[in-house]
């Protein structure tokens, strides 16, 4: 049994908040009965109508997007900024980002309408690994070892991370950083905590999925094999 508004959202009728509004307006029926309370739960056998039209649950889709800098990872933005959904505007199904990449971060982002998988992939208990290509100002040395042990942030100590492929340039240093947590702006905050602000940040791997040669701003659908492997992680 699931809440009516959640089922409506998964069917692509509207966002969950908009679905709640439709219910309160008396525009939704379950088995011929008008429903006005938000706590109503339904089963797969229930017949649901919105404005007299039966809903049909969308097929599940799974998309890998190479997000550019300058897009936010939300469905819409009150400030009118571009969102990642603008990059998949030709996708018929209503999809949502799995986790977030901030405005100034690029790279691999999964979008799907599979709410159950989204929850599991983003829940800390499953410890799904994400790898970032990080470029920081300056030339950290032993400070990078602090990232591997965990650093103290305002919301607590981070879990140990993995640092690899360190390369030093004239005024900056790049390296790969792998974490399994998903705190807000975590990588940037970790680097600031050791005294080396991030110049650029790109996620290149999510679990076993990699960007490969996918151009920035483009997307592809996951294969059946990749979908099954993602589901097996959780």
Outline the structure in words.
The protein is α+β, with helices and mostly antiparallel strands. It has 3 domains: 2-54, Structural Genomics Hypothetical 15.5 Kd Protein In mrcA-pckA Intergenic Region, Chain A (Roll); 62-113 and 212-233, Alpha-Beta Plaits (2-Layer Sandwich), CATH 3.30.70; 129-206, Alpha-Beta Plaits, CATH 3.30.70. The protein has helices spanning 4-10, 16-24, 115-122, 143-149, 186-193, 224-233, and strands at 2-3, 28-30, 33-34, 41-42, 48-50, 53-54, 62-67, 96-97, 106-112, 130-137, 152-153, 156-157, 162-168, 172-179, 198-206, 209-210, 219-221. Strands 7, 8, 9, 10, 13, 14, 15, 16 and 17 form a 9-stranded mixed beta sheet that branches. A 4-stranded antiparallel beta sheet has the order 3-2-5-6, with no helix packed on it. It has a two-stranded antiparallel sheet with strand order 1-4. β2 (28-30) and β3 form a beta hairpin. The longest helix has 10 residues, at 224-233.
């Amino acid at each position: 049994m699931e809440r009516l508004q959640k089922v409506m959202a998964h069917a692509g009728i509207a966002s969950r908040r908009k679905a709640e509004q439709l219910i309160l307006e008396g525009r939704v029926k379950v088995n011929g009965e008008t429903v006005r309370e938000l706590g109503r739960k339904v089963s797969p056998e229930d017949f649901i109508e919105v404005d007299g039209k039966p809903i049909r649950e969308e097929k599940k889709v799974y998309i890998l997007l190479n997000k550019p800098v300058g897009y936010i990872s939300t469905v819409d933005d009150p400030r009118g900024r571009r969102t990642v959904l603008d990059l998949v505007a030709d996708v018929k199904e209503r999809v949502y980002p799995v986790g977030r990449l901030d405005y100034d971060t690029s790279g691999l982002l999964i979008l799907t309408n599979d709410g159950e998988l989204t929850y599991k992939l983003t829940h800390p208990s499953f410890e799904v690994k994400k790898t970032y290509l990080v470029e920081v100002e300056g030339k950290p040395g032993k400070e990078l070892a602090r990232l591997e042990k965990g650093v103290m942030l305002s919301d607590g100590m981070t879990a140990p991370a993995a640092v690899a492929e360190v390369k030093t340039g004239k005024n900056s240093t790049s390296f790969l950083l792998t974490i399994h947590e998903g705190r807000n702006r975590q990588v940037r905050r970790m680097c600031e905590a050791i005294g080396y602000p991030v110049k650029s940040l790109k996620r290149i791997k999510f679990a076993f999925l990699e960007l490969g040669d996918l151009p920035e701003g483009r997307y592809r659908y996951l294969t059946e094999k990749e979908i099954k492997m993602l589901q097996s992680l959780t």
